[in-house]
């Protein structure tokens, strides 16, 4: 059955990035993309997010990135495939160990920032991310990463972004006008339009007003008859 026929959708947010109210967002989302220390976060922050996620029944995913804390993981980098593979394995391993100690499992993988966009087109980088992440389901937009994951027999999960403008099937680059949506009405309208075409909707935790936006989206989805279920 499709997500639309089931009327089930996931609401995820990027957490553990030290730039938003993790506690409040964990009361609204059904899945948490936890920063694994390479673009933001620390073991202590990962532990706090995982502990709260466990208490609230929120699914935990590994949000892996290039090693780019200065650029918040949004700086395009050329990283050799073998190095990237080991970096991804390190991030997934660190979060998995912490999550397990808090009584939850890492349920999926999601690249962050520049890596997210790179692996839609770059098969070598996509293969490195897959090689470093075991057999975890993969969350993302259509492209090389999801195609290769599916070919390898891994679960793939389609994702959409209520708080970002699209140019065709791509997110508008952040350096262009209107790339980030900031009004609740526009964000809610896009969330409702995307629900059913994707399994998961992402609200960016570092966007000003992220908690209010996420609350508005959740309220609208539930009001429209969608059941929110984590990954």
UniProtKB/TrEMBL annotation:
This protein's species is: Nocardioides terrae
Gene3D superfamilies listed in its UniProt record: Glycoside hydrolase/deacetylase
Identify the InterPro entries for this entry. Answer: Glyco_hydro/deAcase_b/a-brl, LamB/YcsF/PxpA-like
Name of the molecule in the record: UPF0271 protein
Question: Which processes are annotated in GO (biological process)?
Answer: carbohydrate metabolic process
């Amino acid at each position: 059955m499709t997500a639309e026929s089931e009327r089930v959708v996931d609401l995820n947010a990027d957490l553990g990035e030290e730039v938003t109210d993790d506690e409040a967002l964990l009361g609204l989302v059904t899945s948490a993309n936890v920063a694994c220390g390479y673009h933001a976060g620390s073991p202590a922050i990962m532990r706090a997010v995982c502990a709260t996620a466990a208490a609230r029944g929120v699914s935990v995913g590994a949000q892996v990135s290039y090693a780019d804390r200065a650029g918040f993981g949004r700086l395009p980098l050329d990283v050799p495939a073998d190095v990237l593979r080991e970096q991804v394995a390190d991030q997934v391993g660190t979060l998995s160990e912490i999550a397990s100690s808090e009584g939850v499992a890492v349920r999926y993988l999601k690249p962050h920032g520049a890596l997210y966009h790179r692996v839609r087109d770059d098969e070598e980088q996509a293969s490195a991310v897959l090689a470093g992440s075991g057999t975890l389901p993969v969350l993302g937009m259509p492209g090389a990463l999801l195609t290769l994951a599916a070919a390898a027999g891994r679960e793939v999960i389609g994702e959409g972004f209520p708080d970002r403008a699209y140019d065709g099937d791509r997110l508008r680059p952040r350096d262009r006008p209107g790339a980030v949506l900031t009004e609740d009405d526009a964000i809610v309208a896009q969330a409702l339009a995307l629900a059913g075409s994707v399994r998961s909707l992402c609200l960016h935790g570092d966007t000003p007003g992220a908690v209010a936006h996420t609350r508005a989206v959740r309220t609208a989805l539930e009001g429209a008859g969608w059941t929110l279920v984590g990954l």
